[in-house]
Design brief:
The chain is mostly helical. It has five helices and no strands.
């Protein structure tokens, strides 16, 4: 099982790779969460932060936009995990 910080790092890399980091951070701030909801959700269930991160129908991008991104994440997260493991091994070797 991955550490929560690693999961968040992988997720942040995904949104950067898809050029939606600024949109995500703006939408996140617009939700007026009282705490770090991503870490809170991670402590409950590993996948909840992904799904709940992209159902913000009140944002400028709207529900459909975030739903498509969520689907893309769910399809690609295993690749991000493999990339993370590969990079970790390479760092240990080098």
């Amino acid at each position: 099982m991955l550490d929560n910080n690693v999961k968040v790092d992988m997720f942040i890399q995904f949104i950067k790779d898809n050029s939606i980091y600024n949109d995500y951070m703006k939408a996140y701030k617009e939700q007026n969460y009282s705490s770090n909801i991503i870490k809170d959700l991670l402590s409950i269930h590993d996948e909840l932060y992904l799904v709940h991160s992209f159902v913000w129908y009140k944002t400028n991008n709207g529900y459909d936009f975030w739903s498509i991104i969520d689907d893309k994440w769910l399809l690609q997260k295993e690749n991000y995990y493999k990339q993370y493991k590969r990079n970790k091994i390479l760092k240990e070797i080098l």
